[in-house]
Amino acid sequence: MRNKHRADIGIFSGSGMYELAADKIEKAKISTPYGQPSDIIDICTIGDKKVAFLPRHGRQHTIPPHQINYRANLWAMKELGVSRIISPCAVGSLQPDIQPGHFVVSDQFVDRTNGRKDTFADGPDVMHISAAEPYCPELRELAIAALKAEGATVHTEGTIVVINGPRFSSKAESRWFTQMGWHTVNMTQYPEVVLAQELGICIVNVAMITDYDAGLVGNVPEVTTKEVVRMFQQSVGQLHKVLIRLVNMIPADRGQKCRCPHKPDEAYFF
């Protein structure tokens, strides 16, 4: 039976953000072939758009990053009719000029996870999705504009390295990430970004810097959850404003710069 709930835009929120500052009109409990999503999805109204809001870790933060059912979360968004996803998350900085309180609109990722279900193409259909440009260029431009309009300090590109978690990096690992020239470190962007691409959904990452990672220049305190949450709480009000502005800026139709809806057709082996 077809799902009765509908939404235009999806938002996956990360640690410290469990509600969206918007009018809630429905709650959607979606079942998928891949199991249950992280939580019941709030369908909210922002301007003339319906927005599906889902905290990745659940509203009580009971799901660690390596146990998130990423496939169910993405499939649920597709079931709701979502064609664009905004994917904010808390990240650690790997470079001195990217400071706590800043934002990065990522354009690349490096996957350092293991054991995660990271494709819908388990056979018999074979699919090789292109991850060369993982984040939608159209949404990235809009996210940068929304952040600047809200007075945020924004880095307009960056490579986010995704570790399995739930532990933080060792100093040696963190130092290696920095030496490789990567910009931020996180635990949830993969496989979220590639699963969205397999479904033809545009996705953009708005990364909020909460700390310097442990190995940066060798003289920063080790990362703690309390410090991450404290910094997130300082910046979450600005993030809410950015999300509301960004939702309002997203046009109804996807533009010529966006190849996201065509990628699945290009990915099948036959």
How would you portray this structure in words?
With 270 residues, the protein is an alpha/beta fold. The chain has one domain: Nucleoside phosphorylase domain (Rossmann fold), CATH 3.40.50.1580. Helices cover 27% and strands 23% of the residues. The chain contains six helices and eleven strands. The protein has helices at 70-79, 137-149, 171-179, 189-198, 225-249, 263-267, and strands spanning 9-13, 23-28, 41-46, 49-55, 84-93, 103-105, 108-112, 154-155, 159-163, 184-186, 202-212. Strands 1, 2, 3, 4, 5, 6, 7, 8, 9, 10 and 11 form an eleven-stranded mixed sheet that branches. α2 (137-149) crosses α5. The protein is globular, with a radius of gyration of 18 Å. 46% of the residues are buried.
Short description:
The protein is α/β, with parallel strands linked by helices. It has helices spanning 70-79, 137-149, 171-179, 189-198, 225-249, 263-267; strands spanning 9-13, 23-28, 41-46, 49-55, 84-93, 103-105, 108-112, 154-155, 159-163, 184-186, 202-212.
